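Problem: given the chain below (206 residues), write out its structure.
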Amino acid sequence: MRPEDVIVGYVNGVRKKYINPVSFFAISLTISGLYLFILQRFFSDVVDFSSVMEQNQASLRVAEKISSVLFDYNSLFYFAIIPLLALVSLIVFYNKKFNYTEHIVIYLYTMSLGAVLTSIIALLMLLIVPEHVIYFSLISNLGLFIYHCYLLKRVFKLKGPELLLKTFIFLVIFGIGYVIFSILLVFVLIAFTDISLQDFAQPPKS
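Solution.
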Protein backbone atom coordinates (compact mmCIF):
# COMPACT_ATOMS: atom_id res chain seq x y z
CA MET A 1 0.00 0.00 0.00
CA ARG A 2 1.41 3.36 -1.04
CA PRO A 3 1.34 5.97 1.77
CA GLU A 4 -0.34 8.59 -0.40
CA ASP A 5 -3.24 6.17 -0.99
CA VAL A 6 -3.90 6.04 2.75
CA ILE A 7 -3.89 9.82 3.14
CA VAL A 8 -5.86 10.67 0.01
CA GLY A 9 -8.25 7.80 0.65
CA TYR A 10 -8.98 8.92 4.20
CA VAL A 11 -9.40 12.55 3.13
CA ASN A 12 -11.80 11.43 0.39
CA GLY A 13 -14.01 9.67 2.91
CA VAL A 14 -12.67 6.11 3.04
CA ARG A 15 -12.83 5.40 6.78
CA LYS A 16 -13.15 1.65 7.32
CA LYS A 17 -10.19 0.69 5.16
CA TYR A 18 -7.56 2.82 6.90
CA ILE A 19 -6.57 3.44 10.50
CA ASN A 20 -7.89 6.63 12.05
CA PRO A 21 -5.10 9.26 12.02
CA VAL A 22 -5.80 10.27 15.63
CA SER A 23 -5.59 6.64 16.74
CA PHE A 24 -2.36 6.21 14.78
CA PHE A 25 -1.02 9.37 16.41
CA ALA A 26 -1.88 7.99 19.87
CA ILE A 27 -0.09 4.73 19.04
CA SER A 28 2.98 6.62 17.87
CA LEU A 29 3.06 8.67 21.08
CA THR A 30 2.87 5.47 23.11
CA ILE A 31 5.76 3.86 21.22
CA SER A 32 7.93 6.99 21.23
CA GLY A 33 7.10 7.51 24.91
CA LEU A 34 8.24 3.96 25.66
CA TYR A 35 11.48 4.58 23.80
CA LEU A 36 12.14 7.83 25.69
CA PHE A 37 11.35 6.12 29.01
CA ILE A 38 13.83 3.31 28.29
CA LEU A 39 16.41 5.82 27.08
CA GLN A 40 16.15 7.95 30.22
CA ARG A 41 15.79 5.04 32.64
CA PHE A 42 18.47 2.68 31.40
CA PHE A 43 20.63 4.58 28.88
CA SER A 44 20.85 8.10 30.29
CA ASP A 45 24.61 8.17 29.65
CA VAL A 46 23.96 7.74 25.91
CA VAL A 47 22.51 11.25 25.58
CA ASP A 48 25.88 12.97 25.67
CA PHE A 49 25.85 16.25 23.75
CA SER A 50 29.57 16.78 24.23
CA SER A 51 30.22 14.39 21.35
CA VAL A 52 28.30 16.54 18.85
CA MET A 53 28.81 20.05 20.26
CA GLU A 54 31.77 22.25 21.00
CA GLN A 55 33.24 21.83 24.45
CA ASN A 56 31.37 24.77 25.92
CA GLN A 57 30.00 23.90 29.33
CA ALA A 58 27.27 26.54 29.27
CA SER A 59 25.98 25.39 25.88
CA LEU A 60 26.12 21.75 26.95
CA ARG A 61 24.20 22.51 30.13
CA VAL A 62 21.44 24.34 28.22
CA ALA A 63 21.23 21.57 25.60
CA GLU A 64 20.92 18.93 28.30
CA LYS A 65 18.23 20.89 30.17
CA ILE A 66 16.19 21.53 27.02
CA SER A 67 16.58 17.89 25.99
CA SER A 68 15.34 16.75 29.39
CA VAL A 69 12.26 19.00 29.17
CA LEU A 70 11.48 17.88 25.61
CA PHE A 71 11.77 14.26 26.72
CA ASP A 72 9.30 14.91 29.53
CA TYR A 73 6.86 16.82 27.31
CA ASN A 74 7.41 14.98 24.04
CA SER A 75 3.67 14.57 23.44
CA LEU A 76 3.00 18.29 23.84
CA PHE A 77 5.79 19.06 21.38
CA TYR A 78 4.17 16.85 18.74
CA PHE A 79 0.77 18.40 19.46
CA ALA A 80 2.30 21.83 18.83
CA ILE A 81 4.41 21.04 15.77
CA ILE A 82 1.71 19.28 13.71
CA PRO A 83 -0.66 22.30 13.52
CA LEU A 84 2.35 24.46 12.60
CA LEU A 85 3.36 22.09 9.80
CA ALA A 86 -0.23 21.95 8.57
CA LEU A 87 -0.51 25.75 8.52
CA VAL A 88 2.70 26.14 6.53
CA SER A 89 1.59 23.37 4.18
CA LEU A 90 -1.78 25.07 3.66
CA ILE A 91 0.00 28.30 2.68
CA VAL A 92 2.49 26.60 0.37
CA PHE A 93 -0.12 24.42 -1.33
CA TYR A 94 -2.79 27.11 -1.46
CA ASN A 95 -3.71 26.10 -5.01
CA LYS A 96 -4.53 22.53 -4.05
CA LYS A 97 -7.90 21.20 -2.91
CA PHE A 98 -6.92 20.32 0.68
CA ASN A 99 -8.22 22.44 3.56
CA TYR A 100 -6.46 23.00 6.90
CA THR A 101 -8.01 19.99 8.61
CA GLU A 102 -6.96 17.76 5.74
CA HIS A 103 -3.41 19.08 5.97
CA ILE A 104 -3.46 18.15 9.65
CA VAL A 105 -4.50 14.63 8.62
CA ILE A 106 -1.45 14.46 6.34
CA TYR A 107 0.96 15.29 9.15
CA LEU A 108 -0.83 13.15 11.71
CA TYR A 109 -0.04 10.20 9.45
CA THR A 110 3.48 11.21 8.42
CA MET A 111 4.74 12.36 11.82
CA SER A 112 3.18 9.31 13.47
CA LEU A 113 4.84 6.96 10.99
CA GLY A 114 8.14 8.77 11.44
CA ALA A 115 7.88 8.54 15.24
CA VAL A 116 7.07 4.82 15.13
CA LEU A 117 9.89 3.92 12.73
CA THR A 118 12.57 6.06 14.40
CA SER A 119 11.59 4.85 17.88
CA ILE A 120 11.74 1.18 16.89
CA ILE A 121 15.07 1.59 15.07
CA ALA A 122 16.49 3.63 17.95
CA LEU A 123 15.40 0.97 20.46
CA LEU A 124 17.23 -1.68 18.44
CA MET A 125 20.29 0.55 18.24
CA LEU A 126 20.25 1.00 22.02
CA LEU A 127 20.64 -2.76 22.34
CA ILE A 128 23.31 -3.11 19.65
CA VAL A 129 25.26 0.14 19.25
CA PRO A 130 23.98 2.56 21.93
CA GLU A 131 26.86 4.98 21.38
CA HIS A 132 25.49 5.86 17.93
CA VAL A 133 21.89 6.60 18.94
CA ILE A 134 22.36 10.36 19.21
CA TYR A 135 23.80 10.46 15.68
CA PHE A 136 20.87 8.43 14.40
CA SER A 137 18.48 10.92 16.00
CA LEU A 138 20.11 13.74 14.05
CA ILE A 139 20.19 11.82 10.77
CA SER A 140 16.57 10.66 11.16
CA ASN A 141 15.43 14.29 10.94
CA LEU A 142 16.96 14.50 7.46
CA GLY A 143 15.31 11.21 6.54
CA LEU A 144 11.94 12.51 7.74
CA PHE A 145 12.37 15.65 5.63
CA ILE A 146 13.16 13.61 2.50
CA TYR A 147 10.19 11.35 3.19
CA HIS A 148 7.87 14.37 3.44
CA CYS A 149 9.17 15.70 0.12
CA TYR A 150 8.49 12.33 -1.50
CA LEU A 151 5.03 12.01 0.04
CA LEU A 152 3.88 15.54 -0.75
CA LYS A 153 5.10 15.10 -4.30
CA ARG A 154 2.87 12.02 -4.59
CA VAL A 155 -0.14 13.48 -2.78
CA PHE A 156 -0.17 16.74 -4.73
CA LYS A 157 1.22 15.24 -7.96
CA LEU A 158 4.11 17.68 -8.18
CA LYS A 159 6.62 17.77 -11.00
CA GLY A 160 10.35 18.19 -10.32
CA PRO A 161 10.63 22.00 -10.70
CA GLU A 162 7.38 22.59 -8.80
CA LEU A 163 8.58 20.30 -5.99
CA LEU A 164 11.82 22.27 -5.67
CA LEU A 165 9.96 25.59 -5.60
CA LYS A 166 7.40 24.37 -3.07
CA THR A 167 10.15 22.87 -0.91
CA PHE A 168 12.07 26.16 -0.90
CA ILE A 169 8.96 28.17 0.01
CA PHE A 170 8.05 25.62 2.68
CA LEU A 171 11.52 25.82 4.25
CA VAL A 172 11.47 29.63 4.30
CA ILE A 173 8.02 29.87 5.90
CA PHE A 174 8.60 26.96 8.27
CA GLY A 175 12.01 28.37 9.21
CA ILE A 176 10.41 31.67 10.22
CA GLY A 177 7.67 29.85 12.11
CA TYR A 178 10.18 27.55 13.79
CA VAL A 179 12.29 30.49 14.98
CA ILE A 180 9.19 32.11 16.49
CA PHE A 181 8.18 28.77 18.02
CA SER A 182 11.68 28.28 19.45
CA ILE A 183 11.69 31.76 21.00
CA LEU A 184 8.31 31.10 22.59
CA LEU A 185 9.59 27.72 23.79
CA VAL A 186 12.56 29.39 25.48
CA PHE A 187 10.24 31.80 27.32
CA VAL A 188 8.04 28.88 28.39
CA LEU A 189 11.07 26.94 29.62
CA ILE A 190 12.31 29.96 31.57
CA ALA A 191 8.86 30.49 33.09
CA PHE A 192 8.10 26.90 34.06
CA THR A 193 11.47 25.13 34.50
CA ASP A 194 14.79 25.77 36.23
CA ILE A 195 16.31 27.14 33.02
CA SER A 196 17.20 30.84 33.30
CA LEU A 197 18.51 33.56 30.99
CA GLN A 198 21.91 33.16 32.62
CA ASP A 199 22.12 29.65 31.16
CA PHE A 200 22.16 31.13 27.66
CA ALA A 201 24.88 33.67 28.43
CA GLN A 202 28.36 32.89 27.15
CA PRO A 203 30.92 32.62 29.96
CA PRO A 204 33.63 35.32 29.96
CA LYS A 205 36.81 34.33 28.16
CA SER A 206 39.75 33.77 30.43
